[in-house]
Design goal:
The complex is a heterodimer. By secondary structure, chain A is of the alpha+beta class. In chain A, 25% of the residues lie in helices and 15% in strands. Chain A contains eight helices and nine strands. In chain A, the strands form two sheets. Chain A has a five-stranded antiparallel sheet with strand order 1-7-3-9-2. A three-stranded antiparallel sheet of chain A has the order 6-4-8, with no helix packed on it. Chain A starts with 8 loop residues before the first helix and ends in a 6-residue tail after the last helix. The model of chain A has no long low-confidence stretch (mean pLDDT 95). Chain B is 7% helix and 35% strand. Chain B has a four-stranded antiparallel sheet with strand order 2-1-4-3. Classes of the chains: A alpha+beta, B mainly beta. Chains A and B meet through strand 5 and helix 7 of A and strand 1 and strand 2 of B. Strand 5 of chain A pairs antiparallel with strand 2 of chain B, so a sheet runs across the interface.
C-alpha cells in the first residue's frame, strides 16, 4: 500500500472545491470489455414490453454480485472480476485511499442503463431530475461515489450531468428537481474507461439518451470506516506561512491550494458564493486536521473575538 | 382558450437585474418538452431581460433572515423568480 499513487494536495483541494475528480480513459480496454461481457447482451426493444421488465432482466442476468451493504470493499467483488481489477488499478486504489482512507466499506452499487427512444414505447424519453443521492446528510465526512463508463459516451447518448461545486449544500434528494439547468453544469461525454470520482453530495442526474445506442454506467458508493484525515500525499502539502493579499491585487496570484479553494463556480450566487468558500475552508480543515487553516481570511475575520481574549 | 408557460429564473442576488445562474421552463401548451440538462446557456442574461421579452413576473422569493447557528449552512438556491406567459390556443 505504501507505493500507492496518492492524490496530491492540489487534487484534493480541487475535490474539496468542486466535488469531483475526472480521469479520462484510465481503465484498460481489456477490463472495459470484460465488464461489458459481464453485463451481457442487452436485448433490442420489444414492442409492448415495459422498460422496467427489460431493465430487471438485465440486472438479473448480469454477472455482477448482489452484495450486502456494509461489506468491506476488499471483499465485495470476486478476484479477477472486472470491478475487482478496476478497483485495484494503482490510480484507483490510490484515489480511494486518499479520499476515504484505509479499509473502506461498500455501501451499494448500481448498473445504470439508459435506453434509446425505441425502448420507451408509450412513454417518453426524458432526463432524470437533478438530485443529490441518499438523503439529507449533515456530516462533514463524506462518501465517495465512483462512476465508471465502460464504453464511449457521446453527447446524443446523454451522459451523467453534474454540477461542480454543489456538494456542500445540504438538500433533500430530488427536492431540487425544479432546477432544470444550472450554469456550469457538465455532461459526461467521454472515452471508454473513464472514471468520475464524486463527493456524495454533488448534484447530478442521468441525461436523456437520444441516440440509437444503449448507455451504461456503473456506480459504486464507498464509505470511510476509519479516518479520511491526512490520507493524501502529504509531501505535496506546502505549509501555509501567511495569508494571501485579498481584494486589492496588482495582478493574478500564482497557483496554490488557496487559489483552487477560492475559485467560484459559474452558478454561485453573489452572497452565498462567499459561504461556499467558508464551507470549503471548513472541509479543508477537516481533511488536513488543521483547525487554524484559512484561505483569504474568511474564517480568521469571523473567528476574531477580541473581547474573548 | 389559454395555456400558461412558466419560466423560473434563479438570480445571483435578490435584484431582478442580477445575472441568471439557473433556470427552468415548463410549457403548458405542450408545444415543447423541456427537461433537466437540455440547455447549457440561460435563455436570458438577467430577470429584467425576461420582463423585456414579455414574461410577467408573478412570484419572487422572500429575503429571509438567517437562523442563528446556521448562518453558513447552504441548501437550495435563494433568488427564485417565477414568470408566466399566457398563450392563446385553438379550443
Amino acid at each position: 500500500m505504501r507505493d500507492l499513487p496518492l492524490l496530491s494536495a492540489e487534487q484534493m483541494a480541487s475535490f474539496v472545491a468542486r466535488g469531483f475528480l475526472r480521469f479520462d480513459a484510465v481503465v484498460p480496454d481489456e477490463i472495459n470489455q470484460q465488464f461489458i461481457d459481464a453485463i451481457g447482451e442487452i436485448a433490442p426493444a420489444v414492442p409492448g414490453q415495459k422498460l422496467r421488465r427489460t431493465y430487471g432482466e438485465i440486472l438479473a442476468r448480469a454477472d455482477i454480485p448482489q452484495v450486502a451493504a456494509g461489506t468491506p470493499l476488499s471483499g465485495t467483488y470476486p478476484q479477477g472480476s472486472a470491478i475487482e481489477r478496476l478497483l485495484n488499478l494503482p490510480l484507483v486504489a490510490g484515489a480511494i485511499r486518499s479520499l476515504v482512507g484505509e479499509a473502506p466499506v461498500f455501501d451499494h452499487h448500481f448498473l445504470h442503463v439508459t435506453f434509446p427512444p425505441a425502448y420507451h414505447e408509450g412513454g417518453e424519453s426524458v432526463s432524470q431530475h437533478t438530485h443529490q443521492d441518499s438523503t439529507i446528510d449533515p456530516r462533514q465526512a463524506f462518501d465517495l461515489q465512483i462512476m465508471y463508463y465502460p464504453h464511449k459516451v457521446t453527447r446524443p447518448m446523454g451522459g451523467t450531468r453534474f454540477v461542480p461545486g454543489t456538494h456542500l449544500r445540504k438538500v433533500s434528494e430530488v427536492a431540487l428537481g425544479r432546477y432544470q439547468n444550472i450554469r456550469g453544469q457538465q455532461h459526461m461525454v467521454c472515452e471508454a474507461g473513464t472514471l468520475l470520482f464524486l463527493h456524495s453530495g454533488i448534484w447530478h442526474g442521468g441525461g436523456v439518451n437520444l441516440s440509437d445506442e444503449t448507455r451504461t454506467m456503473f456506480k459504486v458508493r464507498i464509505n470511510p470506516s476509519k479516518t479520511q484525515v491526512r490520507q493524501f500525499d502529504l509531501e505535496t502539502l506546502k505549509p501555509q506561512t501567511e495569508q494571501r493579499p485579498i481584494f486589492y491585487l496588482k495582478g493574478p496570484l500564482p497557483p496554490s491550494v488557496e487559489q483552487t479553494l477560492m475559485t467560484p463556480e459559474p452558478w454561485f450566487e453573489q452572497d452565498t458564493g462567499r459561504l461556499e468558500f467558508v464551507n470549503r475552508i471548513q472541509l479543508w480543515r477537516y481533511l488536513t486536521d488543521d483547525p487554524t487553516y484559512d484561505a483569504d481570511y474568511w474564517l480568521t475575520r469571523l473567528e476574531n473575538s477580541p473581547s474573548m481574549a | 382558450m389559454q395555456r400558461q408557460k412558466v419560466l423560473v429564473l434563479y438570480l445571483a442576488n435578490s435584484a431582478l437585474d442580477s445575472p441568471v445562474v439557473a433556470w427552468a421552463v415548463y410549457d403548458g401548451t405542450g408545444a415543447t418538452r423541456t427537461m433537466a440538462g437540455d440547455q447549457d446557456e440561460p435563455p436570458f442574461a438577467t430577470g429584467v431581460e425576461a420582463l423585456k421579452a414579455g414574461w410577467r413576473l408573478f412570484q419572487a422569493a422572500q429575503i429571509l433572515p438567517h437562523n442563528r447557528g446556521q448562518e453558513f449552512e447552504l441548501s437550495y438556491l435563494k433568488y427564485e423568480f417565477f414568470f408566466e406567459q399566457l398563450v392563446e390556443m385553438d379550443a
